[in-house]
Amino acid sequence: MSNEEIKGTAGQKSFKLSTGRVFNIKVKSNNLDITIHCDPDDPDNADDSATLESTDGSYKQTVRWADGESVDGGVTLTFKRIEADKSYNLLIDPGKDGDPFYVAKNVPLSQAKLQEMQS
Q1: What is the DSSP letter of 19?
Q2: CATH class name, domain 4-111
Q3: 119 pLDDT exceeds 60?
Q4: b/e burial code for range 69-99 (CB count within 10 A of at least 16 → b)
Q5: What is the dihedral of CA 50, 54, 59, 65, to 10 degrees?
Protein backbone atom coordinates (compact mmCIF):
# COMPACT_ATOMS: atom_id res chain seq x y z
CA MET A 1 0.00 0.00 0.00
CA SER A 2 1.35 3.40 -0.84
CA ASN A 3 0.78 6.79 0.67
CA GLU A 4 0.94 10.14 -1.00
CA GLU A 5 2.43 13.29 0.48
CA ILE A 6 0.07 16.17 -0.22
CA LYS A 7 0.60 19.88 0.25
CA GLY A 8 0.20 20.97 3.86
CA THR A 9 0.02 24.42 5.34
CA ALA A 10 3.14 26.21 6.58
CA GLY A 11 5.02 24.18 9.16
CA GLN A 12 3.17 20.92 8.69
CA LYS A 13 3.25 17.84 6.51
CA SER A 14 0.10 16.25 5.12
CA PHE A 15 -0.29 12.66 4.02
CA LYS A 16 -3.12 10.77 2.38
CA LEU A 17 -3.01 7.09 3.30
CA SER A 18 -4.00 4.45 0.80
CA THR A 19 -7.11 3.97 2.95
CA GLY A 20 -8.18 7.49 1.95
CA ARG A 21 -7.78 9.04 5.40
CA VAL A 22 -5.69 12.23 5.53
CA PHE A 23 -3.30 13.05 8.38
CA ASN A 24 -1.52 16.34 9.04
CA ILE A 25 1.59 16.37 11.25
CA LYS A 26 2.95 19.47 12.97
CA VAL A 27 5.66 19.74 15.62
CA LYS A 28 5.27 22.71 17.97
CA SER A 29 7.89 23.20 20.68
CA ASN A 30 7.96 19.78 22.36
CA ASN A 31 4.45 18.78 21.29
CA LEU A 32 3.35 16.82 18.22
CA ASP A 33 -0.05 17.66 16.72
CA ILE A 34 -1.63 15.11 14.43
CA THR A 35 -4.85 16.13 12.70
CA ILE A 36 -7.01 13.30 11.43
CA HIS A 37 -9.56 14.26 8.82
CA CYS A 38 -12.77 12.64 10.05
CA ASP A 39 -16.13 13.56 11.54
CA PRO A 40 -15.36 14.07 15.24
CA ASP A 41 -19.09 13.95 16.07
CA ASP A 42 -19.63 10.56 14.41
CA PRO A 43 -20.40 8.07 17.21
CA ASP A 44 -18.43 5.42 15.28
CA ASN A 45 -15.26 7.45 16.01
CA ALA A 46 -15.89 7.74 19.77
CA ASP A 47 -13.70 4.76 20.67
CA ASP A 48 -10.91 5.47 18.14
CA SER A 49 -7.48 6.36 19.50
CA ALA A 50 -3.86 6.92 18.52
CA THR A 51 -0.78 5.81 20.45
CA LEU A 52 2.61 7.44 19.95
CA GLU A 53 5.54 5.50 21.39
CA SER A 54 9.29 5.98 21.15
CA THR A 55 11.19 3.01 19.81
CA ASP A 56 13.41 2.97 22.91
CA GLY A 57 10.34 2.60 25.16
CA SER A 58 10.93 5.83 27.11
CA TYR A 59 7.76 7.54 25.80
CA LYS A 60 4.21 6.29 25.26
CA GLN A 61 0.99 8.26 25.14
CA THR A 62 -2.49 7.34 23.92
CA VAL A 63 -5.01 10.00 22.90
CA ARG A 64 -8.63 9.20 22.08
CA TRP A 65 -10.37 11.00 19.21
CA ALA A 66 -13.00 12.11 21.75
CA ASP A 67 -10.28 13.87 23.79
CA GLY A 68 -8.82 15.70 20.81
CA GLU A 69 -9.60 19.23 19.67
CA SER A 70 -12.32 19.48 17.03
CA VAL A 71 -11.13 21.42 14.02
CA ASP A 72 -12.74 22.12 10.68
CA GLY A 73 -13.04 18.74 9.01
CA GLY A 74 -11.39 16.65 11.70
CA VAL A 75 -9.82 16.31 15.10
CA THR A 76 -6.34 17.29 16.31
CA LEU A 77 -4.60 14.97 18.76
CA THR A 78 -1.74 16.50 20.75
CA PHE A 79 1.08 14.36 22.10
CA LYS A 80 2.91 16.31 24.80
CA ARG A 81 6.54 16.39 25.93
CA ILE A 82 7.98 14.47 23.00
CA GLU A 83 11.73 14.35 22.43
CA ALA A 84 12.83 15.48 18.98
CA ASP A 85 15.95 13.29 18.88
CA LYS A 86 14.00 10.00 19.15
CA SER A 87 12.29 7.70 16.66
CA TYR A 88 8.60 6.89 17.06
CA ASN A 89 5.85 4.45 16.15
CA LEU A 90 2.27 5.67 15.62
CA LEU A 91 -0.49 3.13 16.16
CA ILE A 92 -4.10 3.86 15.18
CA ASP A 93 -6.81 1.89 16.96
CA PRO A 94 -10.15 2.21 15.13
CA GLY A 95 -11.97 0.72 18.14
CA LYS A 96 -14.86 -1.54 17.29
CA ASP A 97 -14.45 -0.71 13.60
CA GLY A 98 -11.31 -2.80 13.09
CA ASP A 99 -7.91 -3.96 14.25
CA PRO A 100 -5.17 -1.53 15.33
CA PHE A 101 -2.59 -0.70 12.64
CA TYR A 102 0.66 1.25 12.42
CA VAL A 103 0.85 4.32 10.19
CA ALA A 104 4.46 4.96 11.19
CA LYS A 105 7.17 2.67 12.53
CA ASN A 106 10.65 3.60 13.70
CA VAL A 107 10.46 7.09 12.18
CA PRO A 108 12.87 9.77 13.44
CA LEU A 109 10.73 12.73 14.41
CA SER A 110 12.92 14.99 12.31
CA GLN A 111 11.92 12.95 9.24
CA ALA A 112 8.30 12.24 10.19
CA LYS A 113 6.54 10.60 7.29
CA LEU A 114 3.56 8.32 7.64
CA GLN A 115 3.83 4.89 6.12
CA GLU A 116 0.96 2.48 6.38
CA MET A 117 2.21 -0.92 7.46
CA GLN A 118 0.73 -4.19 6.25
CA SER A 119 -0.09 -6.72 8.94
Answers
A1: T
A2: mainly beta
A3: no
A4: eeeeebbbbbbeebeeebbbbbbbbbeeeee
A5: -10
